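Handout, tutorial session.
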Amino acid sequence: MTANLRPDSIAVHGGREDLTALGVHALPIDLSSTNPLPDIESGGDSYESMATGGYPLAEGGAVYSRLWNPTVARFESALAQLERSATAVAFASGMAAMTAAVLAHTASSGKRHIVAVRPLYGGTDHLLDSGLLGVEVSFCEAGQVAQTIRPDTAMVVVETPANPTLDLLNIRDVVAQASEVPVLVDNTFATPVLQNPITLGAAMSLHSATKYLGGHGDVTGGVIACGEETAAALRRVRAVTGGLLHPLGAYLLHRGLATLPIRIRAQQASARHLAAWLAGHPAVERLYYPGSEGDPASLLQHQMRGSGAMISISLRGGFEAAKQVTSSVRLFTHAVSLGGVDSLIQHPAALTHRPVPPEARPSASLVRLSIGLEDPEDLVLDLDRALVGHAVGRRAASRTTMPPVPTAH
């Protein structure tokens, strides 16, 4: 139905193809934890199909919600259409999705090595580096992927724009370097509205659906857009580990997709306004925003369709300035996460990236902003009060380092 439609239309109609036949207009929610079986044989065949990564069989039904759910399936279909991928697989969180991707590729290939390009979301970095999944990871720069790959490399993990420095990475170049090794791109910051990694050669496009896809800060989920072979391996891991997205979460995420394009455009317009203002503020030592100083314009023109709505800034005055500013804002909410309709501010080094090794941790002076749907002038006034209210606005000296961070286990 949506093959020839533009993204705004896909966002509204994707994954809803069966609603007319069901006789409903709004998305239905199937909360069944178990389903009646027509008979032993057909029920068993359907169970086996889903437990091994396939779909429910018409004769045997959905059997059990850990294996498959129609509300979740509709969301997966809608996201896949937006990402221009063959299919998608949804999970209970973005980290559950990342974990499943690692397990699926190491289990199927027997390879235990992963190449990862920093910076990454702190949770991803910590998961890969922790040894919890029995893998060995080599971190490298984007231009070093080819020389870092080994015969036992199972996958390459990248994020662009990267969390929290908004670094841009050339997906086509990384895919070319990886050759036959599958590449996973964390597409959370860009969303399918601004970037489609699958069309650029990536094997997987991962989202923390908690962020922009849901868009209202009231649901947790993760999803990976990919090809059918990869999806089967992911569904098998999901079925065995119980990582399926809850149907109520799937409903909220699917509903959120309908407004995703207009939310992204409005938030991006405000972010551009704030980025231009912050670039000249005396309290700001450095602005991190796609398209600003040193960013490759070609990636914004040929890989992305906009700069997005995330901004990071390094403050003159270091950690003390960051602590003061995050505590002084009133319209911004001091909280982790991002991508909602309300603007958030947080300090990555102390929070989301706390488990990351010191050499890869963001600067103690860096603060991350997620721009929401408030009037941008009100956001400017709120930030200006917080920035000028601290001595950093007058270029006063203060401590530039964070207190020691305990080792994460």
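The second record follows below. Compare its token runs with those of the first.
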Amino acid sequence: MKIIRIAFFTMAIAMLAAVLISLIPSDKWFIRALDLVREPMSYLAGLLLLLSLLLGGSRRWMTIAACVLVIVINFWRIWPYSFLAETQLALGEQEGEAAAKQCFSAMSVNVKVENEQYALIINQVRRHDPDLLFLMETDSRWVENLEPLLSEYDHVDRHPQPDAFGLVFATRLPVVRTNVVENTHRDTPTLYATLQPAESRPIEFIGLHPKPPLPDWNTELRDENIANAGVQTPDRLPDAFVMGDFNDVPWSRTTTEFRSTGDWRDPRIGRGTYPTFPADVLLLGWPLDQLLVKGELEVVSFEILPDNGSDHRGILANICAPT
């Protein structure tokens, strides 16, 4: 029993040290990666706290205190994405008003470049039949297998890459122009599209997939990519939305700054974190795939889709544009 109490104390202190390190304003990958695990770390701290109360012992209060600090600091950072915070978007509450606007569905999926379960992704897309589709990690094999599906769309941009940063953009909405830009690095493209929904003023779409924090790959370029995506849209239109695998969580300083400086709104705020990765362990996962809107765009619905064979869950939204 003593060994278990010591192990619990050691784990609690290690988590507290990690949480305190995560507050350092640094671009080092191992510091920024700690942002990703705030939610599962809090669950583990809560479990340790309960077990320490049951086990007793002279050191249990130190373990409990460390676990409480871990939970409090993490919850402070995640707070906007809890059901206790105020929402930014009304979602289904505006369905009646949305009927008078030009509405469309949009779906994004990171298919995982090594994944060969093409049919699962294709069937899920066909089931929801989105008006706009943004796929990430598409290499030439993926593009080839997707062709029967892509042929059902009026406009398709194919940007396959042999690594994990290929893109496919397909839509039935009228397209004014599209452009693929290397904001920060040659193999992490960002897609921009200017769309003209019927009886609506034009809107811009941003498809984003920067690199994650990894050994030998700090987050300076990822953060710059995210920041550039919001300010370098070709037409500078007031109404825009962005979807994609940010390889970042919405409560990080990078995405928080992106949201606040660009006046973007997030349907997750006030509702929950909606984790998307890893797809088969969402309780211990984190929300890497995101949707944000700005201007007068409204989000009528937003959901995380069921498992589709990839390591990411897809996201689906119904969006309404002003007329």
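Points raised in discussion: DSSP finds nine helices and eleven strands in the chain.
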